[in-house]
Amino acid sequence: MKNFIYRILLLLFFLMPGIVLAQHQEVSERPEMYKGKGLDSTDSKSVLGAFKGGKVQGHFRYFNMITLNEKDLSDYYANAVGGGLRFETAKFHNFQFGISGFYIFNIGSSDLTIPDSQSGQYNRYEIGLFDIEDPSNMKDIDRLEELYLKYNYKKSFLTFGRQLLNTPFINLQDGRMRPTGVEGLWAEINEIKGTKIEGGWLQSISPRSTTKWFNVGETIGIYSSGLNPDGTPSLYSGQVHSKGVALIGITTKLNKNIKLLGWNMLTENVFNSAMLQTDLSFPLKDNSTLMASAQLIKQDAVNNGGNSDQSKTYFPKGGNSLSFGSRFAWKNKDWEASINYNRITAQGRYLVPREWGRDPFFTFLPRERNEGFGDLDAVMAKLNYNFPKSGFKTSVAAGYYHLPDTKNYALNKYGMPSYTQINTDIRYTFTNTLKGLEAQLLLVAKLNNGETYGNSKLIINKVNMVQSNFVLNFHF
User: Fold this and answer.
1) How much is the average pLDDT of 222-248?
2) What confidence tens digit (pLDDT) does each residue in 25-34 have?
3) Which residues lie below 8 Å from residue 173, measured CB to CB, with a gap of 6+?
4) What is the DSSP secondary structure assignment for residue 233, as one 8-state letter?
């Protein structure tokens, strides 16, 4: 039965008609759920008026995930359902108050507390729908996600408290039931024509697949810690000392064809990451556009990388890394095609806590990261197509990721072999009587292209696997 299902899923990858790929391919929320759109821009005359003039948004979500591994390794499934409410007041003297929360129930899954009998490894994907700190918890999974005070000035704003952010290094990574949340002070300045400046100080984070809020140092190591550069187990979980994260980003349009992005993230006492990116666009006569992008990311350790004991540090003292990538694309009203490349040099591992977000690389595909690796080459092709006036968006992407040998611990933190990944994504937005309902099917296949030395730990939930994700979202 298992081999039959495996073959059916593989057939779906290659026989799906009208396949495309979206640039952001997460199993995602609607972005406007995080932006409080739809509010009256006029200022209220009283606090009561601000609350009465506020906006309530709701969201129900169902998520089915199935992962099939090779041979005698364990397969997994999970069904999660949840819902939440978000409220943001209207303006009162340019101030707004916002609050949101979400609950999740496990309505049927594999036993996620039992390791695989052959490899000894625990579940990797399905547990992320619930609480990774308590895999046995099936119903008491809830979180206060947003609780903030915002001040608006013309086109800009300043927000203090718990909020949801998207940056290259810390982002929603919303491919499970709920996204990553942050707490701190955040500003967005839009007073300069063609330029957006973002930045702030974050002192707490609630990673995806958790229910609690942690200080920045505590978040590093909630997920798998992998290995130290010498091959010993990483012991930095709960041992990293950091007061917080400072971020700043500037996006500016030099003209209608050239956009520049610059970001810097300083994790106090641990490491610094700096990113530069250029996006070019060249309109063509047939109402299509050629696009090209280039990206550079430089990382350096700060002090001892989080702990003076190097067996318990996150970023090795004196360590650094360098990544660069490029993207070439063409698009028109319905189609988009691109080829993407990324290189992490051999001078060190690219490190950003997986608890904080997904990779900013052009070659990123959901269900795998290239964080934790050095000496990596990745190439990935995408094709997009939106069926006009049908509500359907379908997608496909195929990528090859050449990694160092699994025994090269200095450049391969998680023991991941080289692999090929194929993603197929189909989305449908309902209308009329079912308006507000959205459905998505994401299929993922990862095939081994490296040496695993007969070690099943290097295979299960990593390569030679297929996975299906079926999601229903209802927004109101």
Assistant:
1) 96
2) 466 554 444 4
3) 26, 179, 180, 208, 356, 357, 358
4) B
